[in-house]
Here is the input.
Amino acid sequence: MNTRLKKYWYDTRQVKTFRNHHLHAAWFQILFSLLVLSLLIVSGCSRKNDGRIRITIWHQDRPDVRDVLQKQLDRFMVLHPEVKVEQLFKETEELRSGFIIAAIAGQGPEIVYGPSDQVGPFQVMNIILPLDSLFDKKFTDQLDPKALTYYKGHLYKISDKLGNHLTLVYNKKFIKNPPKTDKELIDVATSLTKDTNGDGKIDQYGIAWNYTEPFFFIPFMTGFGGWIMDENYQPTLNTVGTVNGLKFVRDLRDKYKVIPNEADYNIADALFKDGHAAMIINGDWSWAGYQKAGLDIGVAPLPLITSTGLWCGTMVSPKGFSINSNITEEKKKWVIKLIEYLMSEENQLEATKTLYTMPTNKNVINSKFVQSNEILRNSQIQIEHGNPMPVVPELRAIWDAMRPSYQAVLAGSKSPEQAVTDMQMQAVQRIKEMNE
Amino acid sequence: MNQTLRQKIFIFFLVTPALIILLGVVVYPFVYNVIISLSNMNLRHIKDWEIVGFRNYVKVFTEPSQPDFYVIFIKTVIWTIVNLFFHVVIGVFLALVLNQKEIRGKGIFRTILVLPWAVPQLIVALTWRGMFNYEYGSINQILGKVGLPAVEWLRSPTEAFVAAIITNVWLGFPFMMVIALGALQSIPHDLYEAADIDGASWYHKLRTITLPLIKPVMVPAITLGTIWTFNNLNIIWLVSNAGEPSDSTHILVSFVYKAAFNFYRYGYGAALSMIIFFILLIFSVVFMRKTKVTEAVY
Amino acid sequence: MNKSRTKKLIRVTFSYIILIIFCIISIYPVSQVLTVSLRPADRLLSTSLEIIPDNATIANYINLFVKTDFLRWMWNSLLITASVTLTGVILAATAGYGFSRYKFVGKKAAMQSMLVTQMFPATMLLLPMYIMLVNLGLINSYLGIMIMYSATALPFCVWQMKGFYDTIPSSLEEAGRIDGCSQFQTFYLIVLPLAAPALVITALFSFMSSWTEYVVAAQILQDTAMWTLPIGLKSFESNMSTEWGLYGAASMLVTVPVVVLFLVLSKYLVSGLTLGSVKG
Here is the structure.
């Protein structure tokens, strides 16, 4: 075959035809000059410096929160034209890892905004500043104590929102009075789980939620008297509370059959929005979206577990501001001014009114708006039932240890008793690995 | 003399620009990782790390992990081989079908077939996850219409793994198809004509003309495809919702990801990366030698 | 004669059936993305299987242009991607030729070391890459990102070009040299036009790799005005409350330039001045 080919290609007439294609050479030159040109453009449009002090905030908030923040930042920049503040959205994981990388390299945004669980690792790595001496007492005294996140005796985060908590959201089309206890929950859910079109398949469920995710299991764990760690940050997963919580969730699906066979966040969300689920367990971030989808929703505290007399409590985390330890002295004073501005009564009230988030300023919490709004009142009750989200880096190890065994129970491949033993063992091992 | 010097200068200008960019960007991160892999850089020693020797490497092989390192390794190999096999077979097959001169509307077919490559991966991967849903997903509904039983795609480990592979095959075949289409153009038609005169079967033509002649173009693509698939965390992560059920759908890189981002164990992560690196290096050296691709064909 | 005719008919029919089946497989998931983009109220999934959803709306597409910086991201991405594609194609076309045609010291090592850059899990490269770019003053600049992207795309491109050059008989160049072409002339007048399919593949690959890249861009670009499309798209996706409508709409629009580019280039991929079409 090789000789055939060679003979074929030796036909020099072919070569001559190719040589006439000077067009291709021209293309090559055009492309090359385009490349040089674009390099010139690009190097020319590096960051413009207009002499203003630049402050950047990294956060992981959803779009409607960004809009409110932008409004407030714009007002701040009108008050202080010498400062330019920019907000930058980062996805949760991206924010954490990106901030660590940037801060190790001596860079990064001046302010990081987010929930409590990022405070621990950032503090241990020494990449955020203690805030105790930066803000005066008069300012911090206006705030609910939950808004001040301390770790190892120092203040590391000041929050303008309380929340990140789960609640029971129900569709008022199906439910007038939301269930208050686990028994009522099962009754209501059973009566609403049905085959509406008679094809032998259930097409409306009593309740749905992202039940494969451990974060959404915490309410049942606490309801049956369990909690994830003790005051020395050691895991406490192998308790009767965890076992009973696991059994409860499993029974909802396998015994009472009131939740779908398979549900992650997006499936549960779709079921609820399409009216195929009467209730959903979801957080404060979701309410506005359900209203936008045209649902008449109610928000209620998660039920009381009758056998223990405990409420299903979720993890509550304030969301707030921490300051990068690489910050310059000059910027520091502007950053403090900015945080105090964003935390002010008017700004918190504005956020609360548009976003239904729970404020941290005592006056705003006690304001007529918050106290008379049904959703916010129930949200507040749920917050009172909840436990604060641990600040420590060990929390990561606990989630990671819980996930596989929790899902194995749901898949029927592990008994709840075995699962909690495994969870505990894994958590202990992971914490040891992390801290060596 | 003058001639060879000129040739040397010519080669120098051909090759060095690309090598400079590559080496400039790669050397520092690579050396950095080698050093970190020998250090104790982690949550407690993020800035004040020190060299501790091969401790991290030993840990990779001996530390009891859930799921087990060796099981994950085998899964990664299966993941890579199955994906690559279907990418290449479907890709080359479609290219051959499209390359027949009797087919009309080639442009339209080509463009549609390239869509899986063109659409942003995140949203299609999540769409696929939705399609695999037990009750509402379209795949089970189609199975039901054909009279087959519904499959619990996302609740059992094997099926979830298969679901991730199906998604990734879908995403990957157009790339191989495009490469194969390009490669087919380098085959002179008269070779087939000569073979036809000899009365060769299509299989014979495939074995003696088509495959050997597209090999130089396909082998680099297959090698790199293997390397990319081995390290491609995104799809399996999205389709299985970060390893569901019960962390049974991980591949080796997800250990690296978890070590670095969830547990801040940078030293360990770097050591594991080095091991992955050596696995792939050995693979590519052996594969390249077997296929003799660094040597010219003619 | 008649027998071979029926055979051909069968082959062609089967070919069409196969192509149509694969087209359906290719299109269906994409049509689901279209559905997401037309659905009101940000639903990624739905319990119904319709492609055009109830209350379909193009509001998401309008909002994309009115409420977000979509056009700016598109422009930024086009700028970066075009530069990376050009760099990739030019450097790969030349380097691949060098590797294909000449023997020199360290050739094998150089080719292998190019693959090395692809073997290391990207996760662990972020930190050193960032430190390096900080020291070079290239954080928050397009130049930094273009260098990183070119470096990631090059290994495949060079290998691809080298592999394709290998299929072009060197006797052609010898003939050209006899005719009096210089080394560079034989390269760009004779070999390069013949390598058009490989140039197309290289261009498509470079284009796609920088068009969709997210992780590196998110780490380097710290200014919303500099965001590229993938970062912009990602900003619709926040923890548990994603604007799926916008995301779907943007995904459909992001696909358009890729398809257009493919339509333009695929002409050179499969026809024109290529080895296969030359009659002896």
Summary: Confidence is low (pLDDT under 50) at residues 1-23 of chain A.
